[in-house]
Write a structure and sequence with these properties.
This protein has about 375 residues and is of the alpha+beta class. The chain is built from 6 helices and 13 strands. α2 runs antiparallel to α3 and α3 runs antiparallel to α4. The protein is rod-shaped. It starts with a helix and ends in a 9-residue tail after the last helix.
């Protein structure tokens, strides 16, 4: 670039315009280097990421001959050149590392611009199988200051994350240009996978342990008064666990986590088991369905042994018809068998639903109502 042209760039007050590429749009190659993904918040549906953008395009007006300047490239402040004015659609906030980064201009007119940013975006997490969920988060970059006839992006995404000690891992990156777009744009999709083994152990294992403890408590005899206190204590403890769990799990308008339904079913089963214990213990305490007790008839005088007379009992003796179980205890045993069968079936159904059931979230309003379309009331 001649020094005279550089002086004219410094002296001009007209904002830089997009390079003229004739009838074809200007091609801008974009390399998106994802260096970090952090602060994944499933309760607020947000995720933060650190990106490095490499933008490159040709501007023939910035080229120069070797005889004019022997340098192969020079660096210029980006405010002296035309650069795409990018806006991220899903961003809640964007922090650019440099407000005026320097661009490298080669002798042939190739402009290279590196700019780093940190952003917090909204992400539609698919939490049906939380904590083994997989989600795609999109970053849509728009250049609203230009038209599709003037500018076109060729994007490419590169994964440069080196840390593996995190809850959500980046399993894939994809960059593409949307099929239908009114302004120049490109989209970067970050595929996230939850690898939180700690969350699985902290949620699923306590639920199964409480069910096993409840089954063991049902093996205590009904006549043991500690059985009711054991069941009530177990139910109250699970209520505290369930209330804290509901606050920790995210909620959505569609496709809520299956664990919410799973732990609600466990709460219903524990409540039924506790009510059965209280009911059967009450029936047994009131004497219902107890074995019949009848007095022995008094021995006849004629059958008494006169050679060895002994003291005669003044009251007739009372005997019980054998040590058989009461009907209440038999019903309690039958309930225990049915209860164990229901728990086994519920666990099997949950596993089948976990692996084979699919849930599709409702489409966003932007897809149900096209641009310029009349909304349905």
């Amino acid at each position: 670039m001649p020094l005279a042209c550089l002086d004219s760039l410094l002296a001009t007050e007209v904002p830089p315009q997009i390079p003229d590429n004739g009838s074809a749009p200007l091609i801008v190659d974009v390399h998106v280097f994802v260096s970090n993904v952090f602060d994944v918040n499933i309760l607020q549906y947000t995720v933060c990421s650190a990106l490095l953008l490499r933008l490159s395009w040709f501007d023939p007006h910035l080229s120069w001959h070797e005889s004019t300047d022997s340098r192969n490239s020079i660096t210029l402040p980006s405010n002296l050149l035309w650069t795409p004015d990018l806006t991220i659609q899903e961003a809640l906030w964007v922090k650019w590392r440099e407000h005026n980064p320097r661009a490298r201009v080669s002798r042939k007119g190739l402009v290279e611009l590196y700019t780093a940013l940190t952003t917090k975006i909204n992400c539609d997490f698919e939490l049906l199988r939380f904590p083994s969920d997989k989600s795609d988060c999109n970053l849509s970059f728009f250049a609203f200051s230009n038209t599709v006839e003037e500018l076109k992006f060729h994007p490419k995404a590169v994964n440069e994350i080196v840390s593996v000690k995190r809850e959500y891992m980046v399993r894939g990156l994809k960059a593409q240009v949307p099929i239908k777009h009114l302004v120049p744009s490109f989209q970067v999709t970050i595929s996230l996978q939850n690898t939180a083994v700690k969350t699985t152990m902290a949620l699923v294992v306590p639920g199964v342990a409480i069910l096993l403890a409840d089954i063991c408590g049902s093996l205590l005899p009904l006549r043991v008064t500690e059985r009711i206190s054991y069941k009530v204590t177990l139910l109250l403890s699970y209520l505290v666990f369930h209330s804290s769990l509901v606050q920790a799990l995210p909620s959505s308008s569609s496709c809520n986590p299956l664990l919410i339904s799973y732990f609600t079913v466990l709460l219903i089963l524990l409540s039924l088991s506790t009510m059965e214990t209280v009911l059967m213990s009450g029936l047994l305490a009131r004497g219902y369905f107890c074995p019949k007790i009848r007095p022995n008839p008094a021995p006849r005088e004629e059958g008494l042994d006169t050679t060895n007379p002994g003291p005669r009992s003044e009251e007739p003796q009372r005997t019980v018809e054998g040590p058989r179980k009461t009907w209440v205890e038999a019903m309690d045993h039958i309930f225990l068998l049915i209860y164990v069968a229901v728990i086994g079936c519920s666990q099997l159904i949950f596993v089948m639903v976990w692996f084979w059931w699919e849930c599709k979230s409702d489409p966003p309003p932007s897809k149900t109502i096209p641009h310029g379309g009349k909304p349905k009331i």
